[in-house]
Amino acid sequence: MHIWVDADACPVVIKEILYRVAERTKLPLTLVANQWLKTPPYPSIRAIQVPKGFDVADNYIVDQAVAGDLVITADIPLAAGAIEKGALALNPRGELYTKENIKQTLDMRNFMETLRNSGVETGGPPAFNQADRQNFANQLDRLLAKR
Q: What is the dihedral of CA 54, 139, 48, 129, to 10 degrees?
């Protein structure tokens, strides 16, 4: 299992959890972003800087991920692309995207985007909090225990 991180919008506390997991398990962890990232000097961790542009990091992750990998992202189209390739997708709040729920999640995302584009104020997600961090850590532990 290779862990891929959509790192541009990933909360720092989630990256720190992932660094500890990579150090403990020796699983390869790759953070992909369109900016330079400082990462700990562990042999299993690397950062890839991709050019700026719409979905460049997402496309890189989908191109590189293979069945059985884990993609960490809040980007629902990226999660859908990862699942299509047989990878797992987990968002930073601990929600696991699956073949069973990704279509509905993607449809809801597209519906909300249509509302926003037509001028409706939909608000954003709630602030990231300690419960989100714990949910992520717990779900990650469950996934790693299954591998």
A: 70
**Residue 30 identity (one-letter amino acid):** T
What mean pLDDT is predicted for residues 117-136?
85
- The mean pLDDT of 85-90, rounded to a whole number, is 97
d(CA 120, CA 79): 26
- As given in the structure block, the two tokens for residue 132 are 């989100």
Does pLDDT of 83 surpass 80? yes
Residue 125's closest CA among 40, 49, 7, 11?
Answer: 11
Burial of 146 (0-12, 13-18, 19+ CB in 10 A): exposed
Helices (H), 65-101: 76-84
Contacts of 66 (CB under 8 A, 6+ apart): 2, 85, 86, 87
